[in-house]
Hints:
There is one protein chain. With 394 residues, this protein is an alpha/beta fold. The chain folds into 2 domains: 6-175 and 370-392, Rossmann fold (3-Layer(aba) Sandwich); 183-367, Rossmann fold, CATH 3.40.50.2000. The chain contains 15 helices and 13 strands. Helix 12 links the parallel strand 12 and strand 13 (328-331). It is elongated.
Amino acid sequence: MRGGNIETMVGGTIKVIQMLPELNTGGVERGTLELGAFLTVSGHQSIVISGGGRMVPQLESEGSRHLTWPHIGEKSPRCLKYFFPLRRFLLKEGADVLHLRSRLPAWVAFLAWKSLPVKKRPVLVTTFHGFFSVNSYSAIMTKGEKIIAVSKTIADHIREAYDVTAERIVLIPRGVDEKLFNPENVTVERIRNLKERWGLNGNTDPVVMLPGRVTRWKGHDVFLKSLVGIKELPWKAIMVGELDKTSEYTRILEKMVADLDFGERAKFVGHCSDMPAAMMLAEIVVSASSTEPEAFGRTSVEAQAMGKPVIVSAHGGSLETVLDGKTGWHVKPGDSEALSACLRIALSDESVRKKMGEEGRKWVVSQFTITKMCEKTLALYQELLLSKNARSQT
């Protein structure tokens, strides 16, 4: 996209480079893949630079090019070796957009970008995916010509923590694939496979699910404590997400399950690559983030898209994505008793759960889809390129 009239500039092919540490799992990684797929389907060129990971085959199968730079996200001097290769690559490719999604790769990329002649620089976009610690290291994410905030909460955080004008911040909420996360598109076989894998065959008790990587942030300890208050009710608690068997926190949680005498009623099932099918097994989905708020709360949005009522900690992006009393419930962060009371209410009335699930699906499809996220991101790229072209002609 190199000059010309407005129709050509807006409709022409754009070459976008996204950079992040790795492509294994997580919302940042999935957003990168989703944007890459959207760009290629829309006739644009997508390049991703990362340290690699299990998502790379999917990324490439959907049309993006991938460069594996093993230490690009490593917090060591070794990442600096990519300064000159990246500089040469930017000049060779003539990319239109450089989109930075994580702090360490952003430092290397920004320095390389800054060293280029002004006319040969791609437009620079950064995304604040979370509540980065407020310091000079994190400030690199404010260097974009435009800064994408994934929620109003994050936009407020950027304005409050850094000397950034509101005009430079663009709110683009994350999105979910409303076709993938659609109960009508999940086969009985996929559900049956997970039931067998997780030992749920023959289970008739309501399943309460907490999806998320097993870390203190996600509040698994709060969730387990909350189950004590409803121990006399029928339920199964399934915790889905990667866990490190060697970590102290995992050992603490496993001991809690044993000490609380939950037996097979509460179990950790590890990583799941088919979350739509997983959520079909649940009556209620919980997000118990405690030590810090969710920047957006993607799993809660995915659950609502699957027609499931959700219980979320009342802080951060969850306040924006879950409608209290309509698509789910808000509870005080870190308060196991409040969560227990809410679970009791949710488990007591199937008709309320069904109604909330229906409203949740409508809410997500109207507000938080991949298509909306990607269209807004592409529009931002085009706006910046039009502005760049106008400056170059004055």
